Amino acid sequence: DQTGxxxxxxxxxxxxxxVLTNGYGPGEGLGHNITVTRQVRVLxxxxxxxxxxxxxxxxxGDTTSSTQTLTPVYVxxxxxxxxxxxxxxxxxNIVTVNNGTLTAVANGETTVTARVIHYGQQFTxxxxxxVRTLTTSFDITNQTAGSRKDMEVGDTFDYQKSISPDxxxxxxxxxxxxxxxxxxxDQTGxxxxxxxxxxxxxx
Length: 203
Hints:
Elements: E1 12-20, E2 34-42, E3 48-51, E4 55-60, E5 67-69, E6 72-75, E7 84-89, E8 95-98, E9 101-104, E10 108-118, E11 121-133, E12 137-140, E13 156-158, E14 161-164, E15 176-177, E16 183-185, E17 190-193, E18 201-202
Parallel strand pairs: 4-11
Antiparallel strand pairs: 1-2, 3-6, 5-9, 7-10, 8-9, 10-11, 12-14, 13-17, 15-18, 16-17
């Protein structure tokens, strides 16, 4: 306005011109106007943002997936004024977040929230996070590897197993016999001798 007050409306660059009228009043002689100009650029603000990952699954026991980094994508991509980005975990007992980097803590499901504060506006996005624990070791405990178990036709035997860690998310085991007509097996590890012969039991 005519007081020199300007207000940014949309991104772009303009020239502000101020002219001082010198000597054009009644009874005054002809003078020379004085003109000054200034450049003003209105920077592009962030109008929204997204997170590249809408959901994340993390695995304790695997160094490459026990931590992951979430990546914000700002709109427009050529923004000129960064916003303040804040991260929060819905449950730090399951996953923690630091500057967008997630660290798996324990099995479970939760959310991580990213919030951008920009020119008094707030934009919020949420990512679903699932944490699982991988099995690091598994073995049969009542028959040593490389040994042979002798049975008679009609005998039964139940394999026992150990899985570590105890909190592993993956404890399902598939059992098989190399020849079920000799030794049958069910999915609990229970075997039964059917006919004479030698088989390999695989878990």
